[in-house]
Amino acid sequence: MATQSDREVMEFRRQMKEKLKKEFRRQYWDPFKHAAGDGHVFDPALQRYMSMRACQYDYFKATPRTTIAGLLSISPIFITYFFVRRERKKLEEDCGTGKIAYEDRKYKFMV
């Protein structure tokens, strides 16, 4: 069960949501705004988000945490490449020297 303060907060949020919806509809369906050439609704929150995304590299600071995160995100690719390359090189060597017969090869039907 929600307490009285929780219900008040939920009611306040519902009212705020309805107010914002009403304002959006009012701006979106305003015929004079479209006639003036401004056919979109300006959303300040969306503008702040877009500005943040455009300028995030200007304010980025390399810290030990971001460096570790970058290395941890890239290292699985290099580790996978290393193991696949090693396996393929061994397979090529075995096929080239005749250790593996043609009918026993794993990838003989691949182009």
Automatic annotation (TrEMBL):
Which regions span the lipid bilayer? Answer: 67-84
The protein's predominant localisation is: mitochondrion
- How would you describe this protein's topology in the membrane? Single-pass membrane protein
Keywords in alphabetical order = Electron transport, Membrane, Mitochondrion, Mitochondrion inner membrane, Respiratory chain, Transmembrane, Transmembrane helix, Transport
Q: Which GO terms describe its cellular component?
A: mitochondrial inner membrane
Location in the cell: Mitochondrion inner membrane
Hey, which family's this protein in?
Belongs to the complex I NDUFB4 subunit family.
- Protein name per its UniProtKB record: NADH dehydrogenase [ubiquinone] 1 beta subcomplex subunit 4
Q: Which organism is it from?
A: Armadillidium nasatum
Recite the lineage of the species. Eukaryota, Metazoa, Ecdysozoa, Arthropoda, Crustacea
